[in-house]
Amino acid sequence: MIKKFIIISLLLFSNLSIATSLDVEEARVKKAENALPKVAQRYNTFMESLTESVKNSTTESQISQSVADLSHRLWQQAVRDVQSGSNDDRPLYWSRLTMRRALKQLSPNFKMLPWQREVLLRSVETATRGLNDVSFSEDSQIKILLTGFDPFFLDRDISQSNPSGLAALALDGHKFNVHGKQAQIETVMIPVRFKDFDDGMIESILTPVYRDNLADMVFTVSMGRSDFDLERFPGRNRSANAPDNLNVYTGATKRVPKAPMLNGSTLNGNEFIEFTLPVAAMQAVKGKWKVNDNANISTLKKGEFIAESLYQLRDETSVTGSGGGYLSNEISYRALRLMHQYHSNIPVGHIHTPRVKGHDPMLEAAIVQQIKKMVISAAKAY
């Protein structure tokens, strides 16, 4: 028996336009097709099937089922390919955008209303991110949820990949034994878009996890610095003067940090939260890179320093958490904040991976293997 639950609502992804004009991410597809044809067009058979299905659809039900099925299959195919050794997260990212572009430009054999097209776009987002594919076996006694991110800063380098996304594809469904108990990892892929965070995407994913005890550990993963960093003190505020994948800037800077939003209101919470991962167990893993217990933060009053405790930070205003001032820090903060709201005490926290320039399959494979070892070591300490 498989225990399966859907951890995302169709109310999310409200940044997707009901218009048929392409957004910034979708408009990059053409550049990717020219610069990286083998990557961007790897799953062209899915695009061909989508085109045929849309053109032949005569009812809303028919096209909805076709899009949902193809989107789910795309996620599964990307998982299979990576687990067979491809070491590349980028084909999934670009194919998702290609599907969205096609749905904005193609017309079925019936009059499709704008809201119906919007539902199809949301269906693509949900299914191709694994968000309705989290399935734990009934005999899995330690359930682990791990999140990765899309590639980002693509206007700087269209070839950029993200080892955290590769890790999500590589580890989805992975099972292993811990002291006679079966552990299982399930994964999802997170967009690099501020509005999805502001609209409550992370809370929608994790609320059933904490509320219904659907997982025993939560790892959020993103690409970071030169080594592995376990981010001890995530901060509430944004401060990175950097765009998301829609080229949106929040206006936040290190001089003027800004709190994120949650469903139309300011995200309330402590300025800093402490993660709950088993640090010693994860640092004991041997690999190519060091694993740092990173407590380096900055505040408006004191500037940058290494924090020793939450008590030390009680009267401070966060500028950067140990995870920085961008979405990597924020996903960790939101995950921990929600955990405390539900009075959960499960291990939750963020892993920053070593940075990769462009795409380096050998280097990224080594990063994924070290992440895998760290997660297994943490599970053994659970």
UniProtKB/TrEMBL annotation:
The keyword Hydrolase applies. Belongs to the peptidase C15 family. GO terms for molecular function: cysteine-type peptidase activity. The keyword Cytoplasm does not apply. Residues 1-19 form the signal peptide. It holds the Pfam family Peptidase_C15. This is Pyrrolidone-carboxylate peptidase. The lineage of its organism: Bacteria, Pseudomonadati, Pseudomonadota, Gammaproteobacteria, Alteromonadales. One of its GO terms (biological process) is proteolysis. Keywords: Hydrolase, Protease, Signal, Thiol protease.
